[in-house]
Amino acid sequence: xxxxxxxxxxxxxxxxxxxxxxxxxxxxxxxxxxxxxxxxxxxxxxxxxxxxxxxxxxxxxxxxxxxxxxxxxxxxxxxxxxxxxxxxxxxxxxxxxxxxxxxxxxxxxxxxxxxxxxxxxxxxxxxxxxxxxxxxxxxxxxxxxxxxxxxxxxxxxxxxxxxxxxxxxxxxxxxxxxxxxxxxxxxxxxxxxxxxxxxxxxxxxxxxxxxxxxxxxxxxxxxxxxxxxxxxxxxxxxxxxxxxxxxxxxxxxxxxxxxxxxxxxxxxxxxxxxxxxxxxxxxxxxxxxxxxxxxxxxxxxxxxxxxxxxxxxxxxxxxxxxxxxxxxxxxxxxxxxxxxxxxxxxxxxxxxxxxxxxxxxxxxxxxxxxxxxxxxxxxxxxxxxxxxxxxxxxxxxxxxxxxxxxxxxxxxxxxxxxxxxxxxxxxxxxxxxxxxxxxxxxxxxxxxxxxxxxxxxxxxxxxxxxxxxxxxxxxxxxxxxxxxxxxxxxxxxxxxxxxxxxxxxxxxxxxxxxxxxxxxxxxxxxxxxxxxxxxxxxxxxxxxxxxxxxxxxxxxxxxxxxxxxxxxxxxxxxxxxxxxxxxxxxxxxxxxxxxxxxxxxxxxxxxxxxxxxxxxxxxxxxxxxxxxxxxxxxxxxxxxxxxxxxxxxxxxxxxxxxxxxxxxxxxxxxxxxxxxxxxxxxxxxxxxxxxxxxxxxxxxxxxxxxxxxxxxxxxxxxxxxxxxxxxxxxxxxxxxxxxxxxxxxxxxxxxxxxxxxxxxxxxxxxxxxxxxxxxxxxxxxxxxxxxxxxxxxxxxxxxxxxxxxxxxxxxxxxxxxxxxxxxxxxxxxxxxxxxxxxxxxxxxxxxxxxxxxxxxxxxxxxxxxxxxxxxxxxxxxxxxxxxxxxxxxxxxxxxxxxxxxxxxxxxxxxxxxxxxxxxxxxxxxxxxxxxxxxxxxxxxxxxxxxxxxxxxxxxxxxxxxxxxxxxxxxxxxxxxxxxxxxxxxxxxxxxxxxxxxxxxxxx
Amino acid sequence: xxxxxxxxxxxxxxxxxxxxxxxxxxxxxxxxxxxxxxxxxxxxxxxxxxxxxxxxxxxxxxxxxxxxxxxxxxxxxxxxxxxxxxxxxxxxxxxxxxxxxxxxxxxxxxxxxxxxxxxxxxxxxxxxxxxxxxxxxxxxxxxxxxxxxxxxxxxxxxxxxxxxxxxxxxxxxxxxxxxxxxxxxxxxxxxxxxxxxxxxxxxxxxxxxxxxxxxxxxxxxxxxxxxxxxxxxxxxxxxxxxxxxxxxxxxxxxxxxxxxxxxxxxxxxxxx
Lengths: 1003, 272
Hints:
heterodimer, A: alpha+beta, Mth169, Chain: A, Phosphoribosyl-aminoimidazole Synthetase, Chain A, domain 2, seven-stranded mixed beta sheet, 30 helices, disordered C terminus, B: alpha/beta, Rossmann fold, four-stranded antiparallel beta sheet, 7 helices
């Protein structure tokens, strides 16, 4: 017979509603302003197989079509009535998860493995019953919503007797022989730099010259002669160096020598921001904590490790995936989440994953303006990222427990997608501490997981560059959560059976990075890329080495355990391939088809990078106080603040993320009487047999950074700690993670204010040290992403400098956790903390269009003492509700606590501890740090006040069962008088895309 | 009737609730709970013979890439541990026929429906219902109120009354193939749990979170020994899993655990 190509179309039966189609039709209206009637979605499977027709029919009926809901047609169009249709298919080589599953199903049907020419691929057809008629509008529908031309292509059918879609197979055919090229580096400066640009190495002149010098070293020449390599570097070696030395991997800016001129004009030198402010801070905190130091492993593995229970450690990591998410929001974000999953999974001997977090920074969804080339509309980015994290998190079975969505116009230049993952690591595997790795020379190097293609090549170097028109499409990968889940299921079994000695993930830089890093422990590695499983033939060795194809871990297996390891992998349906072995000869050696194609000294690979010398200069004047006129109706302002994108309800995201799987959920993202209150932090019990809880919180305050980066950093850190403390975390147990996303801080012709951006980074690091020392919070992990700019012609959009501070806390008995909703009528409401006139960058000033003012700062020493006292009151069970005051200030916090509890309150601003603030609007909407709204259980007031003695803690009124929030101002008159259900409706409306206005779990 | 209650919890290839589901069975007093990788079952390294209860936990088996549980249903139909021997699906049918209990939660329920075991049971396994995409076209995680049908033959839901559980799915909309299928199912009281509002079955979103016909949140078979349900009973076995435990009086033991206890009791002969 031979292989025949068939098309199978599967669609919802005409008499059934097509929910996906209906949702799309609405988005075409909402996002694009175009009217369409009835969209129906048809799945199109292109089946290439060598099988009789009846086998294909049986396959379609069993695997592809649900007879109750769907109908299908083979090699013919599915009948229907529509004006036009678009069929969208992945470009060749882009990961096709549906096709992969369908191919496995086909093999089951055939009862044999598929032949080399047998495959199922998947495309999606959209049939539009009516409208829009104009060709340009149809193109807008397809290109603006249905198809991302970077990774997909489409065909149109517009009726009128046109032929229906033919079967088309997106197969990669690289009609070429793999080759290894060599490059001469003894070129003039400009030619050398051009070579670096042409090859996307992103290497500087100094780095290129250092590499040139290395290849002239006598010991390097001797090695090359011995290995049969030419004197000039191969492309494998140059690509490997470029990747290893990328900003993404080596954090060159954080390691640089910096001459810094601060706001006071004084100059001083900083010898590595990382050593001084990050590692140095943690060392100081750990020394001060002594016996109570929670750290187990920090800064020398893929994620930080802290103590949790005698038999269990916590592992946490937060990453960003900004550039890929800018190009393909869905694939970029999906890969972001499944990618960060592999960090805790590759820490020590491997941790089981128990929670995800996500923080997104976008341009406002209602942004109206001319989109610069290559940028996607904010609404499309928002929806793509949301869906990517939904699929990545939900399908991996890891609950998404905490997050934020932050809006600022300048995130148009690059959206930020922070993804975090927590893991739980046994303290020991067998007799050994599980937070270390034990691989030794002679251990086999085994790659586990998916196959290698061109996916994500140059991801590491690309993310170290600004976004421009020629950004490579191959920089985008699409993750496959199920392949990864199979792999992690297998590796946990292998871990507990003691079948491997070390593990790390394949992320940025692929094998080059993972094996290069692991080889540092033994002093060398020797791998043969001929053995690497490929998605398609024709890849050059350097591409195999650098590919960032997803779902792969690199594992070290002692030689006598290799057969058992590989057999277990095969049994569990996981691809595992031995590629070589770790050595101790000091060389990173790569072979391909019998020849050595790279041999680099390990010390040069990892330590040969020349350090940067940078200049930082503070370039803005100190913020000045401003006072807009007092508004007549603070209650009206409160309503408008509640509807602002940074303040309003994020239930649209929360509801679509599984936040409860694994059974450890204690405090969910939404709480309160009708599940509508915004929780300050998540509480999760990762070990079901123990009551001990993990508290996960974060702070982010980029909106203050333009005014004062130092104040912005203090605010982010205080917010993160405050959120954790408000939910019941013991301040003694906290650990922090710092994730910097910065606009390019290196001055250059196209980046004239680079010195100021670097000064902002220095000031942020100073704040980090100051706050972490005061609060006794060690930094256990972090990451920086340094080129978050868009550049095209004269247009440059740089993100606001953004520090995400993630806080990991612990609560010995999770049943002592406290949520933010008012619980009972008649309870006393206190405000803890001082209010100052700090409205610069606040939501209130942003609402008024006021760009000036003094942003909130923090007093970490004072606040650390306050938080310990407040925690004492929470731990004693005196407090029924505790809510952090942040975006929108006290007014918003009081409104949220009231409507979350469906409870009114009668409150008075006069008792507030306020530093000379003499206006109601400023008191209500200042965003001073260090403040909480607290409700105290009836009968516990005296005890609470005793505990809080000596702190700025003031009784401002009581809750009541009526539905109104009434606040009296400084003159004694009522300045806010609103129905709490109305406030809640206003707060829920902006992102209520599903129309859940009736949400009421009580019934 | 058995003295021991031994539970087989299937895992792997995309399941993700096996740990807490096994935990719930242990809390409910099962004597033995084994989490069995699907690959071991498919290779004949594990067999249903040694168990009284089979559980398909929640997750995304085969990624749900071809529609929820469809690829996995196809896998059970076409995988035989021994060449020429019974398929995994035939093993399940045999297990049901000899009196075993089967619980499918969320993706596990979708699987039981797609292979035709629900609602018609092991004697007549043909699909007459399905679980389609939610009416809102999206995945949702939210808590719902459920109302048990006291006239249902289902062994798991006896005496449950009204209670709360979370749903977490994108394809949970129960649809009948036709009116005949609907009538048979209703006449035999094979819908043991319904989404409820103010004590009555409801079509109103979000109380009925997916637009299910007949407000059906679950199906059982005529013997009452098979239960499939979209909500997650294993996600409410202790008080602190409830969304309002910090503000309401919630019993220490979650309502979901009663469903597991009923099954253990039924196996031991207390009520079966």
